[in-house]
Amino acid sequence: MAVDYVDTLIADIRRLKKEKNAIILAHNYVLGDVQDVADFVGDSLELSKKARQVDEEVIVFCGVSFMAETAKILSPEKKVIHPVTAAGCPMADMADAPALRRFKQDHPDAVTVCYVNSSASLKAEVDICCTSSNAEEIIGLIPEDRRIIFLPDKNLGANVARATGRQMILWEGFCPTHMRLRPAMLERKKEEFPHAVVIAHPECRPEVLDLADYSLSTGGMLSFARSTEAKQLIVATELGIIHRLQKENPDKQFIPISEQAVCMTMKMIELEDVKRSLETLTPKVELEPDIITQAKAPIVRMIEQRLDI
């Protein structure tokens, strides 16, 4: 896009935010120019906490659909706008509520832990949610004599099981973007940049994490990058995080594990979509009241780190 056109779009978005009493929340994986126009950029846990606290009447959520749903669950009185409804999450689509209900019948005594990368209807069926940044702490809340169903991401579940020593019944879901990242890719990068520190997202395969120096959520990666003395970091997660890492740490080099590490749905929301959503206050996220009530409890337990079941 031409510079003048982009500047005009940004100016329009800023004007419309004030007119509509709106806040823009964005995930670390969305397009860089959308991150730059947002009021708050974060990982799933940070965004959940922020959505619960906003004063504005309108939340424009730049991320995938389950994130916008979570914002609506936590702030049901707000108008939550998701600029591109087609921006879904393939992992979230790998688990649905009827299938989970059938699965739980085979494991009636298990505590069900659901990654936030899941639909509102699925969250309504579980005991507690978690994110990649707090999954180990959430698992630690569960009594050791209770079995655990973990869904939908088998990689995150397997990595948390290794870290905590807990046995878990894992759902067969995964993030296609992180699943594409293989040990050979990381080995090549480590050979090319032998002094680089490797940070990898826990949605990666366990054998990729075995080659990494640190397993971190996107929020954890940002904190680590600010504090480390390392000047080169190999980053094993979706490419969108590189924009913010480089912006916040201009003196450091961030090397993506692969140019294939792209989530296309995270890239669907563009500045024009944000502007149009602010103009029309559409598309609105609409959820049934009972789904909001049932799904809110496991999300709040996650945020407050309590398991009152």
From TrEMBL:
<keyword id="KW-0411">Iron-sulfur</keyword>
<dbReference type="GO" id="GO:0034628">
    <property type="term" value="P:'de novo' NAD+ biosynthetic process from L-aspartate"/>
</dbReference>
<feature type="binding site">
    <location>
        <position position="263"/>
    </location>
    <ligand>
        <name>[4Fe-4S] cluster</name>
    </ligand>
</feature>
<keyword id="KW-0808">Transferase</keyword>
<feature type="binding site">
    <location>
        <position position="132"/>
    </location>
    <ligand>
        <name>iminosuccinate</name>
    </ligand>
</feature>
<dbReference type="GO" id="GO:0051539">
    <property type="term" value="F:4 iron, 4 sulfur cluster binding"/>
</dbReference>
<dbReference type="InterPro" id="IPR003473">
    <property type="entry name" value="NadA"/>
</dbReference>
<keyword id="KW-0004">4Fe-4S</keyword>
<dbReference type="GO" id="GO:0005737">
    <property type="term" value="C:cytoplasm"/>
</dbReference>
<comment type="similarity">
    <text>Belongs to the quinolinate synthase family. Type 2 subfamily.</text>
</comment>
<keyword id="KW-0963">Cytoplasm</keyword>
<feature type="binding site">
    <location>
        <begin position="201"/>
        <end position="203"/>
    </location>
    <ligand>
        <name>iminosuccinate</name>
    </ligand>
</feature>
<dbReference type="Pfam" id="PF02445">
    <property type="entry name" value="NadA"/>
</dbReference>
<keyword id="KW-0479">Metal-binding</keyword>
<dbReference type="InterPro" id="IPR023066">
    <property type="entry name" value="Quinolinate_synth_type2"/>
</dbReference>
<dbReference type="InterPro" id="IPR036094">
    <property type="entry name" value="NadA_sf"/>
</dbReference>
<feature type="binding site">
    <location>
        <position position="218"/>
    </location>
    <ligand>
        <name>iminosuccinate</name>
    </ligand>
</feature>
<comment type="function">
    <text>Catalyzes the condensation of iminoaspartate with dihydroxyacetone phosphate to form quinolinate.</text>
</comment>
<dbReference type="GO" id="GO:0046872">
    <property type="term" value="F:metal ion binding"/>
</dbReference>
<keyword id="KW-0662">Pyridine nucleotide biosynthesis</keyword>
<comment type="pathway">
    <text>Cofactor biosynthesis; NAD(+) biosynthesis; quinolinate from iminoaspartate: step 1/1.</text>
</comment>
<feature type="binding site">
    <location>
        <position position="27"/>
    </location>
    <ligand>
        <name>iminosuccinate</name>
    </ligand>
</feature>
<feature type="binding site">
    <location>
        <position position="89"/>
    </location>
    <ligand>
        <name>[4Fe-4S] cluster</name>
    </ligand>
</feature>
<feature type="binding site">
    <location>
        <position position="44"/>
    </location>
    <ligand>
        <name>iminosuccinate</name>
    </ligand>
</feature>
<keyword id="KW-0408">Iron</keyword>
<protein>
    <recommendedName>
        <fullName>Quinolinate synthase</fullName>
        <ecNumber>2.5.1.72</ecNumber>
    </recommendedName>
</protein>
<feature type="binding site">
    <location>
        <begin position="115"/>
        <end position="117"/>
    </location>
    <ligand>
        <name>iminosuccinate</name>
    </ligand>
</feature>
<dbReference type="GO" id="GO:0008987">
    <property type="term" value="F:quinolinate synthetase A activity"/>
</dbReference>
<feature type="binding site">
    <location>
        <position position="175"/>
    </location>
    <ligand>
        <name>[4Fe-4S] cluster</name>
    </ligand>
</feature>
